[in-house]
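This part of the workshop introduces the protein records we will be handling. Getting from the letters to the C-alpha cells is the skill we practise here. The record below serves as our worked example for the rest of this section.

…
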Amino acid sequence: MKLLFLLNDAPYGSERTYNALRLAGSAVRKPDVAVQVFLIGDAAAAAKGGQKLPSGYYNVATMLGAVVRHGGTVGVCGSCIEARGIGDGELIEGARRSSMDELAAWTLEADKVLVF
C-alpha cells in the first residue's frame, strides 16, 4: 500500500503537523507500506534543519528524519521554501526540493492520500 501524507500547517502552533508525522512514522514501520510526505505552504518549514526547541518539546525535523530513516520519502514544495527564505541546503537530510508536478504524480500513484 502506498500512502501520501500532504501537510499544510506550520510545524508548531497547532498539532496537525505533529499528529500527521506521528501517523506517518507509525505507518512507515509497517510491512508492505510505502510512505511519502509532501510539505506545502507553512508545513515546508518542518523540513528546515537545525531547529532548536525547548527541552521536552517535540521536534518535527527529527520526526521527519525518522520517516526517512525507515524508508519514507519527503518532498518539500520548492516555491514554498523559497517564499520562506529556506535554501535547499538548509533542508534536513533526506528531504528534498520537490514540485507540484511531482505532487500530482505522487497523488495519482497513491492508494490513499491523507491531508493534514
Q: What stands out?
A: The CA atoms of residues 65 and 114 lie 19 Å apart. The longest helix spans residues 16-27. The helical segments are 16-27, 60-69, 78-83, 100-109.
